[in-house]
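User: Can you recover a sequence for this backbone? Please restate the input before giving your answer.

Assistant: Of course. Working from this structure:
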């Protein structure tokens, strides 16, 4: 128990300042911030305490007197900073993704266990209104058991927008496959159902002409595919079909639970609305309509969440972090339920590289399993500063892409 507001520092101030803005009404106090680009410090104005201290170096920042840190630095570089923070005695809430390789999954789990520090993933989509309602209805038991579920995170953008938020040839967005940004599609389904992934197979979509266009207009970005689709066998027998961050129309996120007694899904284009269906021949006691579309509501703290970013999800994840820090209320996305999503993405990408072959997903609660993957550093992401560490292409059809580039060069000659 903590009998005061938790004192929190923010690392990475683009996304990090938005999280802090939503964290203030949730009961967090921001006493320090860190970004190597001091031009971002202004984003904390009116959010951080007036006497907050600003740093450009993480090793200085992490020594600041505070209870916890928000990690919102580069997508593929969260693990090393989460481990440093926990070793420095700070609780961590980390943006997605928790780990960029299986070796990082192992290291993160072991650091959380060895230090005993609190770790939570900043996965916000499960707490948007439609997803929260799907979780409430499913967990009431009225729909029976989940049989099939779908989750889509679709985020197309223009080349101009892409370049504006992807500075430098090693920036994570330029190497982000269509598989690895998995948490916004899979996270809500895990949170709703409590099921765990055990095996995955995946395919990616490569369109030669569009890939060449993306390569030309986005300064030779490495990730030039359109979509990644994963089929996941779950531990309760269900099958989930999810996307990574896909480049198709329209920009949206969408979820469906198809169950033994009925189904619930968000409305495409309005993820605060849901469609709830039962077979007309098996209406549950007290239910009079077999088909209903309605606006979902949160039960509590609605005024605080309603204007929060990402459909309210940003408020809720900060609120849950505050409750974890102050009252020790355990979040669903603890270190194990977080790394299982990274492990699913890594195995799905291996599958896509092997023409859709199935891969088992390691459960890192098991210490013997950890030994098998502690040195598995396969990743499509380079280190931002050094460019080192990239061991896989960012395109599961790299051979076709290389051939297309070569053919184009040959045609010019
Ligand atoms: N959950 C969501 O809805 C959501 C939305 C946006 C972004 N994100 C996640 O948040 C994270 C950050 O996203 P972003 O768009 O702000 O990324 P970004 O690349 O634009 O920003 C990262 C920031 O971290 C700073 N940084 C990186 N390494 C540093 C270091 N070693 N020392 C000091 N500063 C460092 C950079 O200067 C930069 O300002 C990513 O993981 C992304 O996936 C999540």
């Amino acid at each position: 128990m903590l009998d005061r507001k938790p004192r929190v520092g923010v690392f990475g101030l683009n996304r990090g300042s938005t999280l802090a803005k939503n964290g203030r009404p949730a009961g967090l106090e921001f006493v320090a911030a860190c970004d190597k680009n001091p031009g971002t410090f202004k984003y904390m104005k009116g959010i951080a305490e007036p006497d907050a201290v600003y740093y450009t170096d993480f090793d200085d920042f992490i020594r600041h007197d505070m209870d916890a840190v928000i990690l919102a630095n580069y997508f593929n570089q969260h693990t090393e900073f989460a481990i440093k923070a926990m070793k420095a005695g700070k609780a961590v809430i980390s943006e997605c993704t928790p780990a960029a390789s299986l070796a990082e999954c192992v290291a993160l789990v072991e650091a959380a266990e060895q230090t005993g520090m609190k770790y939570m993933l900043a996965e916000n989509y499960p707490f948007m209104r439609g997803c929260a309602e799907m979780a409430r209805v499913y967990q009431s038991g009225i729909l029976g058991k989940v049989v099939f579920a779908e989750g889509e995170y679709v985020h197309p953008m223009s080349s101009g927008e892409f370049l504006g938020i992807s500075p430098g040839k090693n920036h994570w967005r330029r190497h982000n496959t269509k598989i690895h940004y998995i948490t916004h599609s899979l996270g809500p389904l895990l949170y709703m159902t409590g099921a765990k992934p055990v095996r995955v197979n995946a395919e990616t979509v490569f369109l030669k002409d569009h890939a060449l266009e993306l390569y030309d207009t986005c300064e030779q970005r490495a990730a030039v595919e359109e979509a990644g689709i994963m089929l996941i066998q779950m531990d309760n027998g269900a099958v989930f079909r999810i996307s990574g961050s896909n480049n198709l129309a329209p920009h949206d996120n969408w979820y469906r639970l198809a169950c033994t007694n009925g189904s619930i899904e968000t409305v495409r284009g309005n993820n605060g609305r849901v469609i709830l269906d039962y077979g007309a021949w098996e209406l549950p006691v007290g239910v009079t309509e077999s088909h209903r579309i309605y606006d979902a509501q949160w039960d509590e703290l609605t005024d605080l969440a309603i204007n929060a970013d990402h459909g309210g999800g940003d408020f809720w994840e900060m609120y849950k972090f505050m409750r974890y820090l102050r009252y020790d209320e355990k979040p669903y996305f603890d270190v194990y339920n977080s790394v299982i999503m990274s492990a699913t993405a890594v195995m799905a990408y291996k599958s896509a590289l092997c023409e859709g072959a199935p891969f088992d997903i390691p459960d890192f609660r098991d210490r013997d399993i950890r030994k098998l993957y502690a040195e598995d550093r396969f990743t499509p992401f380079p280190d931002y500063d050094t460019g080192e560490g990239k061991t896989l292409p960012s395109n599961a059809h790299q051979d076709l892409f290389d051939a297309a580039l070569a053919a184009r060069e040959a045609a010019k000659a």
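That completes the design. The first strand starts at residue 7 and ends at 11.
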